[in-house]
Amino acid sequence: MTALIYRLGHIALNVVDLDAALSDTQAIAGARVVHQDATHAILTSNRRHAEVVLHRAQANEVRAIGLEAVGLEAVEEVGKRAKDRGLRILSETPSLPGVERSVTFASSEGHIFEVHTPVPEDQPLRYVGAGIHPRYLDHVNLSAADPEAIASEFSEVMGLILTERTTGFELMWMRAGDGRHHTVGLKKGQTGLHHFSWELSDFSDFKRLGDKLDACHRNLVWGPGRHGAGDNLFIYYIDSAGFMIECTAEMEVIGDPHRQVRITDAGENLSNAKVVNRWGALPPRLWINHHTDFVGTAR
Ligand SMILES: [Fe+2]
Fold first, then answer.
1. I need a labelling partner for 67 at 20 to 30 A (CA). Which of 73, 104, 175, 222 fits?
2. How is the chain split into domains, by residue range?
């Protein structure tokens, strides 16, 4: 199947305390502000105009996962496929300035995606300021009540390709056109976002992240370690609005579009270190149970 999605585009979050979320994203992850007004703020870590968008709201929830399409026709194709499957179309107006075309829809479980043409690259690559300064947003990991059905839906509507899954469909990893092992991961559970991920430049940044959190009297959730699925280095923390953030590096890139799906056994309660963390430390309950709602999915 030809890829319709190239990469993760941006993440739009609703936050109760916009000032705190803005300060956290700058001081810890180290993204910089592109735009700020009373209602929302746009942040980036590279030339792209937007990577994270924070909206002042009544609850800390995910507003939308932005996925960058391979082109204008791909946006239209995703919209057509979503309508054909009876999925709810929420908007066909781009949420970001300078984006030519987009379609925002809800999955059958309520995950919200804005599939859009590229975000303009109109920002300086390097900048001064606090925090780690990540390279770019890398992937999201969603939770779904029925990951097998949702992965099939994502494949049919957005052309995402299944890279790897566990034997019981507890964890699934899907890739986009850039070939990274996963742009969208799935974890069995209540519909929502489990975490989103920044790509860091170097493992020394992981040390800096731990020290920054320590300086704020906060802790890491899990890591550092190396995931078996994706072979990526990882470290996790929770931000001021309760979103779990992974910082990663060195994810496997798959060049062969026809590579067979890898099937692995994660073990009971994610106990197979060779899949979960090749360095040994298994995920704590805080990581396993973490969940954030999408707008409209709160129970
Ligand atoms: Fe991840």
1. 222
2. 5-116, 136-289
